[in-house]
């Protein structure tokens, strides 16, 4: 399973309960479409920090960085030191 699939599964499990994982495309805007609100952004950042060993202080609190799966994965690849990314 690649990074995009892992992030997609997390988002569906946490924010889109009951939806089909395959319906969430990499470029679907999570913020503009109300899937992730400000509290959801904090939960998503916490998950990314714990899962990919990125210190919270190194994660920008800019919703644009987390607006879709493409941006989230790009950020993780650029920042994470975890070998599994």
From TrEMBL:
- Superkingdom is Bacteria
Which Gene3D superfamilies did the record assign? ACP-like (1.10.1200.10)
Q: Where is the Carrier domain?
A: 1-80
Under the heading InterPro entries, the entry gives:
ACP-like_sf, PP-bd_ACP
Query: What PROSITE patterns has UniProt attached to this entry?
Result: CARRIER
Q: What protein name applies here?
A: Acyl carrier protein
């Amino acid at each position: 399973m690649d990074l995009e699939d892992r992030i997609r599964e997390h988002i569906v499990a946490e924010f889109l309960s009951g939806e089909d994982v395959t319906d969430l495309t990499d470029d679907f805007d999570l913020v503009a479409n109300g899937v992730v609100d400000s509290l959801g952004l904090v939960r998503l950042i916490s998950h990314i920090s714990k899962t990919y060993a990125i210190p919270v202080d190194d994660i920008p609190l800019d919703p644009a960085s987390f607006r879709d799966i493409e941006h989230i994965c790009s950020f993780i690849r650029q920042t994470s030191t975890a070998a599994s990314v």
